[in-house]
Design goal:
There is one protein chain. The protein is of the alpha+beta class. The protein is 52% helix and 12% strand. It has a five-stranded mixed beta sheet. The N and C termini lie far apart (99 Å).
């Protein structure tokens, strides 16, 4: 009888001991899950809070399940992490949204082009002015002979009225960045005012831009000027007609998604 009682006593004792490692395993698994979830985005403050919570739990020799006050804290941290991840996902536009925005912008540029084309047609300037649209934006090209005397960088007085009209066409809503660029043919400059065609092209762009900015409705902050000299020809320099096309001033109206000219 005593041996049976002793055996029953041992079985009861073993039945209690196995709960301890089992609880520890559950505690470690739960801790690992929470750490992996909360560390999906690096946040030192939250990680420190979690670490302190674990330290306080394990230093006392008890599991997380023995400290119910830790559970709401972990749930709160995990909830904040989830909110941050959701907000980040919502703030990033999808490829489809970017494509739709670019398409809408191109359609708006097309509307501006049609307005400028109508102006060109009404003035009978089809030979001197032309427009085109590309991924770079809306381009208005003006042959130099309508704006400048040969080898000069100041806009002729009789062209100032045309410049004023063009400036009105550039008053846009919303405003867009605009680049004025000067171009020449490859014939070397032959006067004492300019060392190279590059110098001439830069000053022509700057002086034409300044004339446009006499319009108080235009913001100088959205304008910039460049000079390319003979280095970006629109046609071959082997013919007089091609060289005439290369001597030009261009107005590039940038897409709204662009911050600077290419």
């Amino acid at each position: 009888m005593s041996k049976r009682r002793k055996k029953n006593h041992d079985e009861e004792h073993m039945g209690e001991d196995w709960l301890l490692p089992y609880a520890d395993i559950l505690t470690l698994l739960l801790a690992l899950f929470i750490v992996l979830f909360a560390s999906s985005s690096v946040d030192a403050k939250k990680f420190e809070q979690i670490s302190n919570s674990f330290n306080s739990a394990f230093d006392g020799g008890t599991g997380i399940m023995d400290q119910p006050e830790m559970v709401p804290e972990m749930e709160q941290l995990a909830g904040e992490e989830s909110i941050e991840l959701t907000e980040t996902a919502e703030s990033s536009p999808t490829d489809e949204e970017e494509e739709a925005a670019a398409l809408a912008d191109q359609e708006e540029l097309q509307g501006i082009k049609e307005k400028i084309d109508q102006f060109i047609q009404d003035r009978g300037l089809e030979e001197e002015l032309n427009t085109s649209i590309s991924d770079d934006g809306l381009m208005l090209s003006i042959e130099d002979n309508i704006l400048f005397d040969s080898g000069e960088d100041e806009v002729r007085e009789e062209a100032e009225a045309l410049s004023d009209d063009i400036s009105e066409l550039l008053v846009l809503s919303p405003p867009r960045n605009i680049v004025i660029s000067g171009h020449t043919d490859n014939v070397p400059i032959s006067n004492a005012d300019f060392e190279t065609n590059w110098d001439l092209s830069v000053l022509r762009a700057v002086h034409f831009m300044q004339l446009l900015l006499n319009n108080p409705d235009l913001d100088p902050a959205i304008f910039s000027a460049k000079g390319y000299g003979e280095h970006k020809p629109a046609a071959s320099n082997d013919t007089a007609e091609g060289r005439a096309q290369n001597r030009r001033v261009e107005i590039l109206v940038l897409p709204l998604t662009e911050d600077a000219a290419p």
